[in-house]
Amino acid sequence: MAPSSSSKHSNLDRLRKWIRSLDRKKVIQNSIAGSAFVVFVIFFFFPVFRENQRLGTVNRELRTKIQTAHAKIASIPQMKQQKEIYGARIAEVRGQFFDPGEVDQLLEIISKVATGASAEITASRPAEVDFDLPAPFDQQYGIIGYDLTLAGRFHPLGLLINGLEEHAKNFMVYEFRIAKNESDPTVLESAIRLAAFVRKTDAAGGTGAPKL
After folding, report:
1. pTM higher than 0.70
2. Between vectors from CA 67 to CA 62 and to CA 71, what angle results, nearest 5°?
3. What are residue 94's DSSP bridge partners?
4. 10 Å Cβ neighbour count for 156?
5. Segment 130-174, tens digit of pLDDT
6. In the chain, what is the straight-line distance between the N-terminal and C-terminal CA atoms, in Å?
C-alpha cells in the first residue's frame, strides 16, 4: 500500500525541523574538515603512498644489484684460479709447437729419435704437405713436411714412428709404406711422410711462414 500524502508531508516537516536545529557553525566546520580531509588524501596521502611504492621498488632493485655484485666479488678468486689454469694449459699446448728457430734442427731431432729406436734413415728430403690447419690456427702455426726413407727390422721401425708421434713437440706421421729388402729379407725398407708443426713468427714479431 503506497504511503499517504500526509505521511510524506510529516517526514519532510521532521527533516526541516532537524536541519533548523543544527548549529550552522558546526555544519560549516564539519564541511571544512571534510573538505580538508579530501584534499589531504588527494594531494598528500596518495602522492606519498605512490612515492613510497616507487622507493620500495628502487630499494629492492638496489639490493638485488648489491647481492649480484657481492656474488661476483666472491667469485673473483675462483675466476683468477681458472684463468691461471687455462693460462698454464695454453702455454703447455703452445710449447708443443716447434719455434721457428728450431726448424734447422728438425732433421737432427728426427735422427736422434731414429738412433734411439735402432732404425736407420737412408734418405730424407723436404715434402709438400697436402693438408692445412683450420682457421684461425693457420694464421699462427705452419706445417713442414719431410719424406724419410728407412731401413731396419719391423720392431725398430715401429719404435721410430711411436717415438716421433710421442715426442714432446708435435710430429705427425701421416703416410707410411713398407716393403722387403730384395737383398736381405730380414731388413724392411719403408717410406714415411712426416709433418712437423711450427709457430709462425717473423723478425718484427708478426706472422710469417717458417722456411727450411
Report:
1. no
2. 145
3. none
4. 18
5. 778 888 878 888 888 999 988 878 888 888 888 888 887 888 888
6. 124
